[in-house]
């Protein structure tokens, strides 16, 4: 018995890296998997269904069931086509993992509008476009699981990733809202903030394998176990709206917190705020 027996999963950006690891593991746990990948470079240029098809070939060779899809997540037509293919193959969608993404890193003052628009389009709009038909079907058919990929670049910030960080912060906001709206329909919506050695990260200094060999927690196959938990019945509706960070230092929940705060009955002034700053702001420690 697998954790995902008889489930149908759509995984975007599943031709390489984390998405491919998710797809292979989900299949091994009994799911039927639609492997979506446009097949471009990590900056979003080019297209080739070959990587998605190779993942499907691996799954089929291992005895699983999967189909490849090369539609563009960043368009409504592409999102609908992804959903339609899963429905044509299996007649249902139980799990959606929005994982597709690109990088166009640049400092804000040097950044271009074109790069800003493309990163926002692939990550944030792409999550919207694929989720829209899936969410509607789940809403009408008893629920399901949606996991959106966010990042510490959006939740905490990271130098040189204003476009990527803005997109990932937007995805986090969308995730929280969908969790609230989907709860009564049995739709569990969560966020994954992953850190793994993939082609998206391999040239970053802290992923240098000569100086800092990646521990098991940094590998896509390990992070995939966290995604499996989130998409399986091991996880329940009480976790909807929550975010797991899975990286080299293990697993943790990321969340927005409110400080003790200050609520003076007589109202407040700028001077009063300055005097109560230690009460309003969290400590830097």
Structural key phrases:
Short-chain dehydrogenase; 285 residues; single chain; globular; 15% strand; alpha/beta; SDR_fam; oxidoreductase activity; 9 helices; Rossmann fold; eight-stranded mixed β-sheet; Sc_DH/Rdtase_CS
Q: Tell me the major beta sheet.
A: 8 strands, mixed
Tell me the fraction of residues in β-strands, as a range.
5-15%
> What strand order characterises the main sheet?
3-2-1-4-5-6-7-8
- Class per helix and strand makeup: alpha/beta
CATH architecture title? 3-Layer(aba) Sandwich
Domain unit count: 1
State the end-to-end distance: 47 Å
SSE topology string: EHEHEHEHEHHEHEEHH
- Inertia-based shape: globular
Number of alpha- plus pi-helical segments = 9
Helix residue percentage: 40-55%
- CATH topology type: Rossmann fold
Count of beta strands: 8
Oligomer class: single chain
CATH homologous superfamily placement: NAD(P)-binding Rossmann-like Domain
The stretches of 5 or more residues where confidence is low (pLDDT under 50) are 201-205, 207-211
Question: If you average the pLDDT, what whole number results?
Answer: 90
Q: What gyration radius follows from the Cα positions, in whole Å?
A: 20 Å
Family: Belongs to the short-chain dehydrogenases/reductases (SDR) family.
Keywords: Oxidoreductase
Domain Ketoreductase: 7-203
Pfam families: adh_short
């Amino acid at each position: 018995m697998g954790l995902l027996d008889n489930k149908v999963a759509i995984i975007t950006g599943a031709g390489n890296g984390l998405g491919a690891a998710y797809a292979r593991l989900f299949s091994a746990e009994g799911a039927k998997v639609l492997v979506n990948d446009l097949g471009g470079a990590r900056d979003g240029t080019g297209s080739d269904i070959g990587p998605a098809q190779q993942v499907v070939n691996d799954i089929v060779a291992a005895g699983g069931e999967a189909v490849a899809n090369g539609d563009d997540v960043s368009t409504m037509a592409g999102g609908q086509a992804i959903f339609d293919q899963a429905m044509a193959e299996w007649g249902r969608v139980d799990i959606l993992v929005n994982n597709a993404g690109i990088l166009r890193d640049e400092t804000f003052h040097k950044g271009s509008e074109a790069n800003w628009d493309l990163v926002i389009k692939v990550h944030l709009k792409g999550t919207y476009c694929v989720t829209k038909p899936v969410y509607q079907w789940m809403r009408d058919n008893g629920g399901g699981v949606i996991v959106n990929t966010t990042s510490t670049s959006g939740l905490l910030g990271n130098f040189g990733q204003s476009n990527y960080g803005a997109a990932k912060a937007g995805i986090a906001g969308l995730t929280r809202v969908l969790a609230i709206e989907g709860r009564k329909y049995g739709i569990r919506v969560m966020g994954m903030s992953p850190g793994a050695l993939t082609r998206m990260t391999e040239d970053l200094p802290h992923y240098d394998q000569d100086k800092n060999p990646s521990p098991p927690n940094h590998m896509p196959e390990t992070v995939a176990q966290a995604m499996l938990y989130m998409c399986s019945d091991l996880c329940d509706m009480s976790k909807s709206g929550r975010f797991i960070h899975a990286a080299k230092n293990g697993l943790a929940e990321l969340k927005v917190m409110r400080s003790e705060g200050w609520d003076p009955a007589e109202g407040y002034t700028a001077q009063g705020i300055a005097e109560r700053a230690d009460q309003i702001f969290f400590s830097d420690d």
